[in-house]
Amino acid sequence: MREEAVNRVRVVFSLLDADGNGVLESADFDLMADRVTAAAPRSTDEEREALRRSFRRYWTTLVSELDTDGDGRVDFGEYTACVLAPERFEPTIAEFARALTTLGDPEGQGLVARDDFMALMTAIGFVPANITALFDAFEPSPDDRIEASVWEAEIIAYYAPDKAGIPGDRLADGVAS
Ligand SMILES: [Ca+2]
Ligand SMILES: [Ca+2]
């Protein structure tokens, strides 16, 4: 596995472990959903519910695919097995990416403003300096917006464990705690 991909697996695990207790559990995904929906005050209830649904699916996919010892939790050792069959996570990650970028585009224009991007990515747990670097890498327009579809594709690439050399690697330097 490429080094960038290993780093990303580690970072994504830290992000998903929203309460920071070292294992992934159902509660982590509820907590993350609370944080992210709170960062999307201009979105509709339906859009926020879609994000919650995508996080619930994310958890059920992870626990059904990766909870090898059957204790209802996914520890880091179990989680690393996600790289063996990345295709099993693709539909789940695609739904999450769509739900998240929709929250970033409350006007429905296919564009995400820097402030909304910062708020959502901070809620997920990324470090502000890294979020800024990623936004800039997307080459924002003069009025400081990026294409929602570009971000959506990057989320899918980022959470896929088998990719490397992508703009999202700017996020791999660590996570907020
Ligand atoms: Ca946890
Ligand atoms: Ca387990």
Give an overview of the whole structure.
The structure is a single chain. This protein has 177 residues and is mainly alpha-helical. It has a single domain (3-163), classed as EF-hand (Recoverin, domain 1). The chain has helices spanning 3-16, 26-38, 45-66, 76-79, 90-103, 114-124, 128-137, 148-159, and strands spanning 23-24, 74-75, 111-113, 145-147. The strands form two sheets. It has a two-stranded antiparallel sheet. It has a two-stranded antiparallel sheet with strand order 3-4. The mean pLDDT is 92. The structure holds calcium ion (CA) (2 copies). Residues 4-39, 54-89 form the EF-hand domain. One of its GO terms (molecular function) is calcium ion binding.
Task: Offer a concise description of the structure.
The protein is mainly alpha-helical. It contains eight helices and four strands; from the N terminus they run αβααβααβααβα. Helix 2 runs antiparallel to helix 3 and helix 2 (26-38) runs antiparallel to helix 6 (114-124).
Note the topology.
Layout (H helix, E strand, L loop, with lengths): L2 H14 L6 E2 L1 H13 L6 H22 L7 E2 H4 L10 H14 L7 E3 H11 L3 H10 L7 E3 H12 L18
Antiparallel strand pairs: 1-2, 3-4
Helix pairs in contact: 2-3, 2-6, 3-5, 5-8, 6-7
The structure holds calcium ion (CA) (2 copies).
The site of one calcium ion has 7 residues, from strand 2.
